[in-house]
Design goal:
Layout (H helix, E strand, L loop, with lengths): L4 H4 L3 H21 L10 H12 L8 H36 L16 H18 L2 H12 L3 H26 L3 H8 L4 H35 L6 H11 L3 H34 L4 H23 L3 H4 L2 H14 L6 H36 L5 H16 L2 H12 L3 H26 L3 H8 L4 H32 L9 H11 L3 H29 L1
Length: 535
């Protein structure tokens, strides 16, 4: 029996319109992003890249360099740990103050019902400001104020990750079961009682899990911030890059890959431990104290290793330096020439993030099928290793390499985003495929359909919404990373910011940072609207 056109594909017209619109937008976006695949095969670029890669072997292994490398690894671990600790100190009061789950007005009228909601909105705005500015931008500003070294990286992580942790902590508390907290508030208990005995026992495991994940992310961020002089592996890599010492670069990348794999393994162990703790309530208190003691010792050792002295950083002399910096930094400049450059840089940054995300989605789709075990166990293991390698190297590190292959400009930034994000999306896509219900695809296969049509019409519709949601989420992240790609010559707002800071035109730099923040907020809202419509 033949099917009419509507029965074959009811959404055919809508898909054709979306495809035509995407094709119409592809050329101007690609033009702004400087897409030029031919640059990747130009003889001059190929010679530079081949010579650069050939220098990776043998890996540098002399005792002096290995000593520097070991100290940089420890410093990176210490930066991530202390930065996460300070971020928690910022996030906890912001999350408690901004969550509606602890609102006394939630159980009835209150004489303080007017100012508490206003305070929550102020705290949420502060949270948005902290996480809206990339940590690399904070690091660059702190390097200008406090000088080179790990202190700038620690403070940058504290601010950006403090905002991120506060936002997610608030969402976790708001989504937790509020009945115990409301009962404590209704009985006349304080907000602290409601938090300690009502909300935290319900949400503790999820709060801890996200904190561990953020520490894992902080390791990658610590390496990136070292590229602007903020210590750790990144600063050592920057020195080796400038000297074109491929053996040292390869050793640093190997050490960083091992560090990321260690962080992943430790994160998995902690998550499994927390899952077992939830099942056995009798061990919860003992394990909680043990984990707290280990974390406290790790923070103390990290603090001593980097020699962070907050009193010296914010003492009288430093206070005058900060005041002078703020006078030069504020208010932001707004002359027409600068605003034109900022507008051009913002468009270039947006185009770079879009091209990079689209290329990453294509890489992720291509690698997700073998990574999900659809081509065999050997292909699955090899593809998973490639995905781990792609996502282990931060975007800015990839950019230092893609600039050699594609030349200066936004196309190098788009390629760097595509490589790192392709590894992230490939893993997420593969996990979605493995967890998808197999019934529809199995039914098509049982009816005689070939493997490709069975996948396209059976498995793909099951995972497509999740894939799209992951892609939009990564686009939100990529817009922030695209904004700082210019630090290594990959165009956009980052290149303009680096230029203005190099000339010590701090009021101009302030305007660029404001534009970065505004662009990130616009993309966040656009992505949230799209995800809402999909839901």
């Amino acid at each position: 029996m033949l099917l009419n056109r509507d029965m074959r594909d009811p959404a055919l017209t809508q898909r054709l319109l979306v495809s035509m619109l995407a094709l119409m937008l592809a050329w101007p976006i690609g033009h702004v992003a400087g897409v030029n695949p031919a640059a990747l095969v130009e003889p001059a670029n190929l010679r530079v890249v081949s010579s650069f890669i050939a220098g990776f072997w043998p890996l540098a292994h002399d005792s002096f360099f290995l000593g520097l490398l070991g100290d940089a690894v420890l410093q990176t671990l210490a930066i991530a740990t202390v930065g996460t600790l300070l971020a928690l100190l910022i996030a906890i009061p912001l999350a408690i103050g901004s969550t509606a789950a602890l609102s006394v007005t939630a159980i009835g009228p209150s004489p303080n019902g007017l100012w508490r909601p206003a305070l929550r909105q102020v705290l949420r705005a502060l949270t948005l400001l902290l996480r809206g500015v990339p940590e690399l931008v904070w690091a660059l500003l702190f390097v200008r104020v406090f000088g080179l070294g790990p202190s700038a990286a620690v403070l940058a992580l504290a601010l950006t990750y403090g905002g991120m942790l506060a936002k997610v902590f608030g969402e976790i508390l708001d989504s937790a079961d509020r009945r115990p907290a409301k009962a404590i508030l209704a009985a006349g208990g304080s907000r602290l009682d409601a938090l300690m005995y009502g909300l935290l026992p319900v949400a503790a495991a999820e709060l801890l899990s996200y904190t561990v994940y953020r520490w894992e992310c902080a390791l990658r961020a610590a390496v990136v911030m070292g590229l602007v002089g903020a210590g750790g592996l990144g600063q050592l890599m920057d020195q080796s890059m400038k000297a074109f010492n491929g053996g040292e670069i390869a050793s640093i990348l190997t050490a960083f890959l091992l560090l990321v794999l260690f962080a992943d393994a430790l994160s998995d162990v902690l998550r499994r431990w927390m899952a077992n703790t939830r099942k056995d309530g009798r061990r919860r208190a003992l394990n909680g104290w043990a984990l707290g003691l280990i974390a406290a010792l790790a923070c103390l050792a990290s603090w001593r290793h980097i020699g962070l002295d907050l009193g010296a950083l914010f003492g009288d002399r430093a206070g005058s330096d900060i005041a002078r910096f703020l006078r030069e930094f504020l208010p932001p400049a707004h002359d027409a020439t600068l605003l034109t450059k900022i507008g051009s840089g913002a468009v270039e940054t947006l185009a770079t993030s879009l091209v990079g995300t689209v290329l990453a989605a294509l890489i992720g789709i291509a690698l997700a099928l073998p990574a999900a075990g659809r081509i065999g166990a050997v292909a699955k293991a090899l593809t998973r290793f490639v995905l781990n390698l792609l996502r282990a190297v931060p975007e800015l590190v990839w950019a230092t390499i893609t600039v050699l292959a594609a030349g200066l400009g936004p196309f190098a930034g788009a390629l760097a985003l595509a490589l790192h994000t392709g590894g992230v999306l490939g893993r997420l896509y593969a996990e979605a495929l493995e967890n998808a219900p197999p019934a529809a695809e199995a039914a098509l296969r049982a009816s005689g359909a070939p493997r490709a049509p069975a996948f396209l019409y059976g498995a793909l519709p099951e995972v497509a919404p999740q894939w799209l949601a992951y892609t939009l989420y990564r686009w939100e992240i990529n817009i922030r990373m695209a904004a700082v790609m210019g630090f290594v010559g990959a165009g956009g707002l980052g290149q303009l910011l680096y230029y203005e800071l190099s000339l010590f035109r701090l009021d101009n730099a302030c305007s660029v940072i404001v534009a970065m923040l505004a662009l990130a907020l616009v993309v966040d809202q656009a992505s949230a609207i799209l995800r809402h419509k999909m839901g």
